[in-house]
Amino acid sequence: MGYVKWTIRGLFWLLVIAFLHYTLPQHDVARITDTYEKRVDPGSNAMFWSNADTGEATDVTVRDVFFIQAFRTNDKPMIYRNEDTGWGWPPYFKFDTSNLQAEASDLISKKNDAKPQWVVVRHYGWRNEFLSIYPNAVSVWAVDGPDVRIIPWFKIVFLTVLAALFWAIRVRWMRFRKRRIEPKVDEWTDGWA
Fold first, then answer.
1. Of 100, 35, 40, whose CA–CA distance to 64 is shortest?
2. CA–CA distance, 20 with 55 (Å, rounded to integer)
3. Which of 40, 80, 117, 182 has its CA 20 to 30 A from that of 129?
4. Does residue 79 belong to any structural domain of this protein?
5. Regarding beta strands 136-143 and 118-124, do their DSSP bridges make them parallel or antiparallel, or are they unpaired?
6. Contact criterion met (CB below 8 Å) for 90 and 124
7. What's the number of domains the chain is made of?
């Protein structure tokens, strides 16, 4: 029975970690090579796309989505979608898709340029070629080179506060259990004896 309990706990924490990894902002240092717009009809992977009702008619299934093509510092390609998140989840409150697309277009740089333009792309989400999942770009800004160091301060503070919150709840639960529940269980089992 102990294996089942630990398996359930492990699966729970795996889901929590996956949720946080998908939702929290990530930073990629990359070189933007192209920006384009594509008509998309989200199908079985619709849960990885932003809400269709952000600035659009809700009865339309096909919509235009902006994309940003880039190459990361390891010369591997990365494609980002550029969609508004609106008031939905995750709470990035992104309403500037067109502005971000213009900024990304202005930062296009080719590999053979004398001095390629490197950028940091802040995004959330995952890239999966098999499921056609693209991370959503939230912001883009130019940096001096590919070796720039980005310290994720928001993630550090957020995860520290979240860990402190989980610890505080666990400590209070253990105290409550020791003071209120265990004496009642002992009293109940003594009655049976």
1. 40
2. 27
3. 117
4. yes
5. antiparallel
6. yes
7. 2
Per-residue pLDDT reduced to its tens digit, 17-44:
999 999 999 999 999 999 999 887 766 6
- CA distances from residue 71 to 23, 50, 140, 182 in whole angstroms, order as listed: 22, 24, 14, 58
How far, in Å, are 24, 25, 162, 167 from residue 16 at the CA level? 12, 15, 12, 15
Asked, as a colleague might, if the bond just before 90 is cis with ω within 30 of 0, I would say yes
Do 127 and 133 touch, CB atoms closer than 8 A? yes
Q: Is the pLDDT of residue 142 over 90?
A: yes
Q: In 10 A of CB 118, how many CB atoms?
A: 21
Domain span at residue 47 reads 26-150
By the 10 Å C-beta count (0-12 exposed, 13-18 middle, 19+ buried), 116 is classed as middle
Task: Quote the percentage of the chain above a pLDDT of 70.
Answer: 88
* Residue 72 confidence class, pLDDT cut points 50, 70, 90: very high
108 and 188 within one domain: no
| Residue 162 and residue 110 share a domain | no
Q: Do 67 and 138 reside in the same domain of the chain?
A: yes
- Name the strand (E) or helix (H) holding 158: helix 153-176
Q: Are residues 176 and 128 in the same domain?
A: no
Report, as an integer, the average pLDDT of 160-166. Answer: 96
